[in-house]
Specification:
- 2 copies of one chain form a homodimer.
- Chain A is 53% helix and 10% strand.
- With 222 residues, chain A is of the alpha/beta class.
- The first copy, chain A, folds into 2 domains: 5-145, Rossmann fold (3-Layer(aba) Sandwich); 154-219, Arc Repressor Mutant, subunit A.
- In chain A, helix 1 (12-26) links the parallel strand 1 (5-8) and strand 2.
- In chain A, helix 1 packs across helix 5 (122-134) and helix 10 packs across helix 11 (209-219).
- The two termini of chain A are 40 Å apart.
- In chain A, 36% of the residues are buried.
- The model of chain A is unreliable at 147-152 (pLDDT under 50).
- The interface between A and B is large, with 41 and 41 residues.
- Chain A binds a DNA duplex (30 and 30 nucleotides) through residues 172-174, 186-192, 194-195, 197-198, 201, 208-209.
Chain lengths: 222, 222
DNA sequence: AGCTGAATTACAGAAATCTGTAAGGACATA
DNA sequence: TATGTCCTTACAGATTTCTGTAATTCAGCT
């Protein structure tokens, strides 16, 4: 089993919970924790330079900001930074994020080894995940394999996201059109915008703009 | 110190984290945990009937629904149920909720003894809270005392919340009006609804309904 | 060049939103 | 009873949304 693990998670209680699982259920005792990405990175660097490198990183994705100013602010950046030094370190992401395409992106672009979704069965999932990763497997969460989710099927391009954001900021279609024209972005007629938004209505089964924004806010798409 | 504690929290990792703190940092070892409200309630009943009542309940507010059908679905109901049997049990709420008026409501209406906000400093806050409650104090979170938040100033009554929810579900004002009339809820003219929503526009500095819903979604109000 | 399909644009009408003004009722106070 | 305030309701007009249809452009393909 892994003998040295780094846990990066800003919520202290969750941090403690992970450590308890690693301790009691998996039998890993050499664990260090960090509440901030910068802190995690420093601990990693020090251990690496001392020839006592970590074998596994368990990290959250989003870290709440507070008074401390951080250079690394997200789990993704942390992973990038650590992997650039020690490419073979195993990485498990532990996050609230449950959007399949976002999780998929982590596996594809950052080659993470496992993903555990914060939730009701996180303990067993975490145990399974650590075991699997130790044996060299790539462990995807149930959310990904079972997913018949709406947001997996729907492809949103940059323009769609931009439209949704503008709408959520209360701009009218006319204002959006003006803005697009100013920026020389290609589909910029009011009817083209109408068409696109109508398509989004279909995709998300929304009744009107307000409904649409509520849905994509709930999905965390914007 | 408390000798017997019940922890109700659906996120397993957080659950484990709380137990670890109680164990390691406060020295409480007789702890039971529950992932569901019903489960917590049953454990409480059993202990009470066996003359081995719990002295402290630490509970979350919201419990995610899954396949198991529950009769008690929220921490508030759980508190009500338990207090109706054992009025003097101490209660600490541990939740993500950070709206001052909601937290205040818990102290005022349910006489909870302490509140800890899930967050970066939850460990120390929890320790402080358990200590304080044990000594008979009422322990409010820093969020309550420091808060200069917008949502502290704006008072939303039940009708406001209902309107926002209906709007976020894509209902038109006409549909909302019909629904209110059916349920015999008093202000049910279209213009009354208009007025109320307009007031919300002012409160939240929203430009239109879509913008408004985006804002209150971001604030977590619905 | 000519064809085809997809995307963009223009236009138009019905429905809904947003913003006023005005009138009526409930309620407390003097 | 009279007065003022607050809330509800009615109505109206300008603006915006939503949903069609039809014309135009553009890229890929033969």
């Amino acid at each position: 089993m892994f003998s040295k693990v780094l846990v990066a998670e800003d919520y202290e209680i969750a941090n403690q919970g992970i450590i308890k699982i690693l301790n009691d259920k998996i039998g890993i005792h050499n664990i260090e924790q960090a509440k901030y990405c910068d802190d995690a990175y420093l601990k990693f660097r020090k251990a690496y330079n001392d020839q006592k490198a970590f074998e596994l990183l368990i990290t959250d994705l989003s870290f709440k900001e507070d008074h401390k100013i951080q250079t690394i602010t997200s789990g993704v950046e942390l992973i990038k930074g650590i992997r650039s030094i020690q490419p073979d370190i195993k990485v498990i992401v532990y996050s609230q994020e449950n959007r399949p395409d976002k999780i998929n992106m982590l596996f594809k672009n950052f080659n993470i080894n496992g993903y555990v979704c914060k939730g009701q069965n996180a303990v067993n999932e975490l145990i399974r995940c650590v075991d699997g990763v130790y044996q060299g497997a790539t462990v995807q969460p149930p959310e990904l394999t079972n997913s018949s989710e709406i947001n997996m099927m729907i492809h949103l391009d940059d323009l769609d996201i931009m439209l949704l954001e503008k709408l959520s900021h209360g701009l009218t279609k006319k204002e959006i059109r003006t803005k697009l024209k100013k920026q020389n972005i290609s589909p910029n007629s009011e009817s083209a915008i109408d068409k696109r938004v109508s398509k989004l209505f279909d995709d998300f089964k929304a009744k009107n703009t307000t409904h649409l924004i509520a849905i994509v806010k709930d999905l965390g798409l914007i």
